[in-house]
Amino acid sequence: MSDASHFLPFTKPTVDEETIVSVVEVLRSGWLASGPKVQALEAQLSEYFGGRPVRTFNSGTCTMEIALRVAGIGAGDEVITTPNSWVATANVIIETGATPVFVDIDAKTHNIDLDKVEAAITPRTKAIIPVHMCGLPCDMDKLYAIADKHNLRVVEDAAQAIGSTWKGKRIGAFGDFVSFSFQVNKNIMTGEGGCLVLNNPEEARLAEKYRLQGVTRSGLDGIDVDVLGGKYNMTDIAAAIGLGQMKHLAEFNTKRAELARHYFSSFGTDFEQKTGAELPVADFENSNWHMFHLVLPESVNRATFMQQMLDQQIGLGYHYRAIHLFSMYRARGFTDGMFPIAERVGKQIVTLPLFPAMSIEDVERVVSAVKSCLL
Predict the structure, then answer these.
(1) What Cα–Cα distance (Å) separates residue 358 from each residue in 73, 164, 252, 259, 283?
(2) Do 114 and 224 reside in the same domain of the chain?
(3) For a disulfide at 342, which of 23, 84, 189, 323, Cβ 3.0-4.6 Å?
(4) Of 246, 270, 295, at which residue does a domain stop?
């Protein structure tokens, strides 16, 4: 049974004893930086994504920046993206010297509204970064039809979408560049880290250069640098965690879906009508259920609601304030009212607890607490 006096966080990683032992083995081996564990994880991820080239990195942020650089995106270019994401999604565009162009989101899926994308395309548009928000994929058919029509590169921000699918195909097993995060709250994690799925060996080799100071090695003493790279490589410590997590990915995602189903059944069919709150799209075909979010009615103060939940020993997250309303983006000319759906969702959204170690009783406790605050 769930203990109502015990604090329930909105997320918590699951790490088995075998993984802990494997990390200790790496520490004892003396090879802590990129080495055999990184190579093994990349091979396993490549197999998972249908044999496509995969390279690992120390975050799921640099993966997107490197994808843009491999695609040749730079100063003078425009990249379309969504204002509803963690700020990193837009920051990486600026890091390359390009200009982010925002398009508002769909009110139900919270993904970029693909029906509005073409109106934002100009002769300077070179790429689009869609976000598979909370593990719910964008309409991939529509996305790539637009990209093909306008000759755009696509960098999928699939940070939250490992294990998600589109029409039976895994996100990452098709498309253009696909970026995943292994940050600690993701469906599988490496503590910090990420991977990038690329299209061919040439792109993978260029990504390797950007990953480690632009270095190319040949022979025992042959080193050259021909591009401006950074320091983005994953450690073998992180890779050991990732290898342990991969063994449980299907199990983790199955449990998440089970918990999400129970959220819907516990809230009931009339919850939205009674409260004015909005539940996520009940997609059990494509989503990996990375998060279960709730959009509060505008009459409810989010901070007050979160405090009321904390008083009941339940932690919530909020994802995300609309990017264009941060000070740095206001300084670039963005203002209130430009993307009203993203602004409303960003102001009122909360994320309910959802992680594999939760029980059905935990879900019922959360739902009971939410109802006590809203009804």
Answers:
(1) 42, 20, 11, 8, 20
(2) yes
(3) 84
(4) 246
Distance CA 257, CA 288 (A): 7
Structural domain count, the chain: 2
Same domain, 209 and 312: no
List pLDDT tens digits, range 99-146: 999 999 999 999 999 999 999 999 999 999 999 999 999 999 999 999
Rounded CA-CA distance 102/326 in Å is: 13
Q: Do 79 and 218 belong to one domain?
A: yes
Per-residue pLDDT tens for 332-358? 999 999 999 999 999 999 999 999 999
* Structural domain contains residue 1: no
In the sheet that holds 78-81, the strands lie side by side as: 54-57, 194-197, 177-181, 153-157, 125-129, 78-81, 99-102
Kindly state the helix (H) or strand (E) to which residue 129 belongs, with its residue range: strand 125-129
Looking at the fold, whether 152 and 241 belong to one and the same domain comes out as yes
Residue 230: closest CA among 15, 101, 63: 63
As to burial, measured by CB atoms within 10 angstroms (0-12 exposed, 13-18 middle, 19+ buried), residue 308 is middle
CA pair distance 172, 175, nearest whole angstrom: 7
Task: Give dist(CA 347, CA 321) in Å, integer.
Answer: 6
- Same domain, yes or no: 258 and 358: yes
Asked if the structure places residue 8 within a domain, the reply is no
User: Smallest Cα–Cα separation from 197: which of 98, 37, 66?
Assistant: 66
Domain limits for position 300: 249-374
**pLDDT band with cut points at 50, 70 and 90 for residue 1:** very low
Averaged pLDDT of the chain: 96
Are residues 178 and 317 both part of a single domain? no
220 and 261 assigned to the same domain: no
Band (pLDDT 50/70/90 cuts) for residue 3 is low
Query: pLDDT tens across 232-265, in order?
Result: 999 999 999 999 999 999 999 999 999 999 999 9
pTM value is 0.95
Under a CB-based contact definition with an 8 Å cutoff, are residues 188 and 34 in contact? no
Contact indicator for 352, 10 with CB cutoff of 8 Å: yes
**Nearest-angstrom CA–CA distance, 200 and 156:** 16
| Alpha carbons 87 and 363: distance in angstroms, whole number | 29
Pick the catalytic residue from 186, 231, 247, 347.
186
12 is catalytic: no
Domain boundary among the residues 246, 278, 302 is at: 246
